[in-house]
Amino acid sequence: MLSYQHAYHAGCRADVHKHAALAALLARLTEKPKPLSYMETHAGRGRYDLHAPEALKTGEAKQGIEAALKAKAIPAEHPYMRAIAGCRARHGGAAYPGSPEIARLTLRLEDQIHLMELHPQEHEALKRAVHADNVHVHNRDGFEGVLALSPPQPRRGLVFIDPSYEIKAEYDAAVDFVRKLHRKWPEAVILLWYPVLDAGLHAGLAEKLDAAALPKYLRREIAFPNPPERGMRGSGLVLVNEPFGAAADLDAAEAYATRAS
Ligand code: SAM
Questions:
Q1: Is the peptide bond before 154 cis (omega within 30 degrees of 0)?
Q2: Does residue 60 sit in helix, strand or coil?
Q3: What whole-number distance in Å separates Cα of residue 79 and Cα of residue 22?
Q4: Which protein residues touch ligand 1 with a CB less than 6 Å away?
Q5: How many CB atoms lie within 10 A of CB 186?
Q6: What is the DSSP letter of 243?
């Protein structure tokens, strides 16, 4: 358990998809002056080095964010690009912001950020990488931690769910969590990422969420160009309580991720 390390996959095509969507949604929510809460169930280490041996070993960022940047696929004023630029200005040209750093750089100081990370080393790295008065880093199970804090203050907000899906049971656990979270905090915007796999493990998650009668519900899947022979051939996002106009944010994120390679 807990053998997954996102350092091997940072900046991959799925990251471009989920991070572009997340940054745009958070920026959209900050258009209103009211403060909000942002919570993450599986935060990772917050910031990555795309020149680190782990990233170079898989080369996934080359097909992902590096290809998208080379093709100038993402407009400079897009919140995802602003987060990358902000992260690189401070930490160098190979730095890549994970979702917690994207949230910190996109949200305002009056917004509250709660990040759950269970792996002790990743949690320590996250605490070092992402800190501010409004950032609260928790070393606990993400599903349990977010439910325990829900509904938070302020009640307006978004929860991002980005498990590593190391074991089959995580697909059902994610479905169960979305249902429970929606019952406890009905107004929460929920963004869930899942991998589209050759083995079809994601199909049950998609079917169960589609059948759950969740409000303002969107589920989108993209197929990667030139997918690997085995493994992840695409990327999926589920959005509950879609903020007005967010479908366009998902369209854009899909275009960036498929242009990436
Ligand atoms: N959301 C991050 C990003 O986009 O930058 C990447 C997260 S990575 C896909 C999944 C993370 O979840 C890993 O760092 C792993 O250690 C952590 N993790 C695994 N099981 C967990 C659990 N039950 N609760 C909280 N974190 C967990």
A1: yes
A2: helix
A3: 9
A4: 2, 4, 6, 42-44, 98-99, 116-119, 122, 141-142, 162, 164
A5: 13
A6: P
CA torsion sign for 47, 50, 51, 55 is positive
Separation in Å, CA 163 to CA 51, 191, 244: 24, 12, 26
Query: In this structure, what token pair is assigned to residue 217?
Result: 């519900």
- The yes-or-no verdict on residue 157 having pLDDT over 80 is yes
Indicate which residue of 15, 111, 162, 249 is catalytic: 162
How far the first Cα of the chain sits from its last, in Å, is 31
Confidence class for position 200, pLDDT limits 50, 70, 90: confident
Going from the Cα of 248 to the center of ligand 1, the distance in angstroms, rounded, reads 27
Residue 162 bears catalytic tag: yes
- Whole-number Å distance, alpha carbon 99 to ligand 1 midpoint, is 10
Residues 6+ apart with CB under 8 A from 46: 97, 98, 100, 101, 115, 125, 126, 129, 130
131: DSSP letter: -
Residue 33 CA to ligand 1 centre (angstroms): 30
Atom of ligand 1 minimally distant from the CA of 160: 1
pTM above 0.85, yes or no: yes
Can you tell me the mean pLDDT for 225-244? 92
SS3 212: coil
Strand 232-240 and strand 189-197: pairing? antiparallel
Phi, psi of 22, deg, nearest 5? -60, -50
Q: From the CA of 98, give the closest atom in ligand 1.
A: 5
